[in-house]
Amino acid sequence: MTTTGARTGRPHTAILGYYPDGDRVLVVGSAGGGPKHPDWYHNLVANPEVTVETGLFTYPATAVMLRDAERDEVFARLIEADRGWGEYQSRTTRTIPVVALVPQPGPPTGGSFAETLKLIHTTFRRELALIRKEVATSGTAGLGAQLRINCLTLCQGLHNHHTGESVGLFPALAAQHPELTDTIATLQVEHEQIAVLLEELEKHVANPSPDLLAQVDRLISALIAHLDYEEAELLPHL
């Protein structure tokens, strides 16, 4: 996200996690539970016009600070998806801000939402295949720093993607298509199962063991089945 500096008027880019929420995306000014709001938040207060880059889309948006009951309701949903937000709030006396980035009129580049979701899934499939090949080739003893980073980056990327779906995409689809309720419930359970596999993979990467390749294979098996099912069931409705 690129903001305009409150004091300098210069563009400032911050790399943030974001959560889809209907037509908008949400960002959280946690600052790791620090005592002050992050600089980008102050920039938004001074000038709410921003540029959002997701890696697939780039588009202008307007920042809307969520207040009072709306902020509390959204923050509670975020904590339900990721308890880390609640831990950050417990570390500080300030109310951690939640900001909605609302796209300005005009379509972003990058294709439809269905095309975007499929592209994201294709990327995860490709990266997992590359990681498996590297692990199989190098073995536990040859697990290099870059491979460790690749594994951990993939884990974080999957976590963020699934959190975004659970918080934004799935509730929106369930509201629009009640017939998908059971399907979405199944996908949510699969998210939880994959989260456990991701945690196990992170442990194996931090302390390599002979079971590392088998753990990668377990994740691949579960994730590919999940992605295939999600695409078959949800893409026709996007």
List keywords for this structure.
Pnp Oxidase, Chain A; 2 domains; five-stranded antiparallel sheet; alpha+beta; 7 strands; 7 helices; Four Helix Bundle (Hemerythrin (Met), subunit A); 238 residues; globular
Which helices and strands occur, and which strands form pairs?
Elements: E1 2-4, E2 11-13, E3 19-21, E4 24-28, H1 39-46, E5 49-53, E6 58-65, H2 68-81, H3 84-90, E7 98-103, H4 113-138, H5 145-176, H6 181-206, H7 212-234
Antiparallel strand pairs: 1-2, 3-4, 4-7, 5-6, 6-7
Helix pairs in contact: 4-5, 4-7, 5-6, 6-7
3D architecture notes:
- It is a single chain.
- The protein is of the alpha+beta class and 238 residues long.
- It folds into two domains: 2-103, Pnp Oxidase, Chain A; 113-237, Four Helix Bundle (Hemerythrin (Met), subunit A) (Up-down Bundle).
- 57% of the residues lie in helices and 14% in strands.
- The protein is built from seven helices and seven strands; from the N terminus they run E-E-E-E-H-E-E-H-H-E-H-H-H-H.
- The protein has helices at 39-46, 68-81, 84-90, 113-138, 145-176, 181-206, 212-234, and strands at residues 2-4, 11-13, 19-21, 24-28, 49-53, 58-65, 98-103.
- It has a five-stranded antiparallel beta sheet. A two-stranded antiparallel sheet has the order 1-2.
- A hairpin with a 4-residue loop joins strand 5 (49-53) and strand 6.
